């Protein structure tokens, strides 16, 4: 049954998913939710697939009205979440009552909030993803009065389970401290920096105002502190770079490429941010402080596997709770069947 939500306060909100994992081979940015962990958990809490579209609200207030009762979950940065003026919890599913306005206000400590829906949000697709691509001009921010169509299975969901604080599914909220410790592994050019590579870990950095989903610009918190310096003058040829590459151009700043990065670049890569730390950087606000911490590749892999196990356990708890309440789960197969918008060809 096709229903919709109508945007009353758009803020900076777009329809996102986890991005185009295989897009780099076609020369396209990966894109997708900047905080992959929060987006993944939001979909898990409402029984939707990892790849299901959801709303990403960035920094500013958001509001919308639903045409039908919806089961939703809000994760990401701390914020004031209300339905009809009544406070609702983050990191737990709750019912968004038809005709009442859901608002997300006062986003703090972090930068992004994610709103997932038990159902299928209709969106155009490019190379298997609805994630916006700013280079190609694909996707956009929502506008006031816009209606976003949602396919909902079965009758409206309203059950005491979702109104009683006794029941909690145990999602692990991300930590928001205002000062971020970001794990990195050695980059391919670490040997070109000699002893100055240690400056990356000895110096706190502050996030610049001109940072975005393409990358973050960071300068030392103390303007007098030196940054790592390459000890050779040979030209660096443009080559493929991963998401999370820590680049060191000439000057007094470093760059950290994020999910909107281009697939090639020509600056030396001193380090690479780990998969789990990338979600942290997706929440880092301009003006906040960042410290880098060196880890080994096995440590980075272990941290990612631990995070994946926690989400898998959450999905298992959600599946058991939904089965007892006779709420259908949206699998990858049913998600594909319910998606009414055809795939678009790449440019």
UniProtKB/TrEMBL annotation:
Alphabetized InterPro entries for the sequence: CT_A_B, Cyclophilin-like_dom_sf, PxpC
Gene3D superfamilies: Cyclophilin-like
Residues annotated as domain Carboxyltransferase: 25-310
Keyword annotations: ATP-binding, Hydrolase, Nucleotide-binding
Any Pfam family: CT_A_B
MF terms in GO: ATP binding; hydrolase activity
Keyword Hydrolase: yes
Protein name (Swiss-Prot/TrEMBL): Carboxyltransferase domain-containing protein
